[in-house]
Amino acid sequence: MSFESLMGASQYLSASVEALAALGAQLRLLQNGDDGDSRIRTLLNEVAQAIDPQLLEDIDRNQQATALVLIQTTFRQALDLLENPERAPGWRYQDPDILQSQGQLSRLIVHWIEAVAAQRPELAEVLRQPGAFLDVGTGVGSLAIEAARSWPTSRVVGIDPWEPALTLARKNLAYSGVADRVEFRPQHLERLEETATFTVAWVPGPFISAEVVDRALEHVRRALKPGGWLIFGLYPLPSAPLERALTRLRIVRSGGHPWTPGEVEEKLRALAFEQIEVCSPAPPVTLVIAQRPNSLRDKRLVRDAVIAQTTAIATESSHSGD
């Protein structure tokens, strides 16, 4: 490859960066009710039309705001990558704008869970009844607050080890109107100590590393009540090489592992979950849902899983000795 090829690729990709910035600028003007300079506004409209003539049709203010937040957090995290490529993996952002924008996006997860539950009466019934919702990796608390608003009979516990995010979460909670039903804790998932406490648990797969996932899922299972539901979120890995590589990079840089639905299903089966199902309520996310069985069945399944795992280990050991 030549320097000219590198510059050509850079110029080609910069068009996407500028297009996304132009779209974000137009959304910001729409949100602010500001026409801006007429010449710039005309050209922003031209960019949006070039992307898709119907791109902004029938989009309400809430949808505009969500898209704008996505664009903002994409740029801020991309800039951090550009300026700090040597940083080790992990969610260690301290910039309040990055933390808050990521949190605002997480509110959508509650509505995706509701969309999934609308097709699954058992899950919908659990969400309607009094219970406790576990929000793993709560960050600035936006998902937890939205859950408390959406399910008024639920108590919500958000855990996160990152204190800069929790500081913002407590401030957000103070103005939320649901502070009496939401609790935030500085805690790693693999140190969760509750037993049979939660009716639903949200686990953000892109932030769970391969090193802790097995212990983490064991702790979630124990913390769920018999009949409780686990919802494990994933970023689907695109088939196109560039998009796939970028998704994997974003996940690993955030401290997670690019899990596939099949890998998650296998881990949940090994822990004797049942009704395991993969669903995609919206393009940016895939959910793996599973239920902890009720008490008697739960004990039998755990016993069978342990026996199967022990047998597999013994078989592997005998083959390795041949």
Question: Explain this structure to me?
Answer:
The chain is built from 11 helices and 7 strands. The longest helix is centred in the N-terminal third of the chain and has 30 residues, at 3-32. The radius of gyration is 22 Å and the shape is globular. The model has no long low-confidence stretch (mean pLDDT 92). It folds into 2 domains: 3-83, no CATH class; 107-304, Rossmann fold. Strands 3-2-1-4-5-7-6 form a 7-stranded mixed beta sheet, sandwiched between helices. It has helices at 3-32, 38-51, 61-83, 96-117, 121-128, 142-150, 163-174, 213-223, 241-253, 261-270, 295-320, and strands spanning 131-136, 154-160, 182-186, 198-204, 224-234, 274-282, 285-291.
Which keywords apply here?
11 helices; Rossmann fold; alpha/beta; 7-stranded mixed sheet; 322 residues
